[in-house]
Amino acid sequence: MEIGSILQRSWDIAWKYKALWIFGLFVQGGGGFSSIFDLSEDSPFGSITSSPAFMTLVFLGIIVGLIFLIMHFISCGAHIDAVNKLTRGGRYTFGSSFSVGVDNFWRMVGLWLLMVGAVIAVVLVLALPGVLFFVIHPAVGVLGLIILIPALFAGLVVILMIYWLAQRAVVVRGSGIGDSLDEAYFLFRTYIAACVKFALVLLLIAIAFGIAVMILLAMIAAPFIAMAIAADGGLLPALLLGIPTVGLVMLVLEGLLGSFFHSAHTLFYFRLLEAPLQQETSGYAAAPMG
């Protein structure tokens, strides 16, 4: 399995077809939001949590979050369809791929719910013996973590790989949720070594990109931070200029990287379908273009 060629082709697609960055943005960052503030009554922000303005912001945040979540599911199907047409023949347009994403919206939601449920189940199954180990003795608990943490990581890799492959079966083949999971499980079981290697390579690349992006954002933000510190009254201009600039760069990078990683998942799925063993042992070999 030539993972290097898959990654090179994925980058070429992401860089050449910049309209796909819109799908990539929602694929990469639209799956959910997390709070970074402590808004309890004892926190510095607690006094504002009951104000009308705060409640309005919370309501708007929920609405925006729902919109992003909806666009996440649409963009997953749309991006898969775009890469399918760009690499395996067909006429690609942004609008037609968006329509495919809309058509597959509920199946994407169903797969996501099953994935979330599987992750929760794995975490609970591994958490119970972890707690028991610490009840027995702290030293036993630490030793148990040495086993449970790799087991958790392995479980997440299995779940995510099957989820990614099933998403592509839904769009490319037009399969239902059950059939797409059957195909995804077959592909993972048949090519487990290649799937694990691919997941680990993408993880390392994601870490490297993450470090590079943080360094780049720090370099972009540095002049605005210096402006805020050096000049009297410079804080407001620094915020007004710095936040939009850094935010825009983050959106562009997230769109680019989202398109790259999502393209890599799709091309990897195609490579599994085209593998010689797959053609000999399964009816999944000749996947029609969606």
Can you describe this structure?
With 290 residues, this protein is mainly α. The protein has one domain. The chain has helices at 3-16, 20-29, 52-88, 94-103, 105-136, 138-173, 177-190, 192-230, 235-274, 276-281. Helix 1 (3-16) crosses helix 9 (235-274), helix 2 (20-29) crosses helix 3 and helix 3 (52-88) crosses helix 4 (94-103). It starts with a helix and ends in a 9-residue tail after the last helix. Residues 30-49 and 278-282 have low confidence and may be disordered.
Q: State the secondary-structure class.
A: mainly alpha
Radius of gyration: 22 Å
Secondary-structure element pattern, one letter each: HHHHHHHHHH
Provide the residue-averaged pLDDT.
83
Q: Number of helix segments?
A: 10
Number of domains: 1
The tally of strands reads: 0
Ranges where pLDDT stays below 50 over 5 or more residues in a row are: 30-49, 278-282
The helical percent reads: over 70%
Major sheet? none
Query: What is the end-to-end distance?
Result: 24 Å
Shape: globular
Proportion of strand residues: under 5%
Task: Give the SSE map.
Blueprint: H1 3-16, H2 20-29, H3 52-88, H4 94-103, H5 105-136, H6 138-173, H7 177-190, H8 192-230, H9 235-274, H10 276-281
Helix pairs in contact: 1-9, 2-3, 2-9, 3-4, 3-5, 3-6, 3-9, 5-6, 6-7, 8-9
Key traits:
single chain, 290 residues, mainly alpha, 10 helices, 0% strand, globular
Brief rundown of the structure:
With 290 residues, this protein is mainly α.
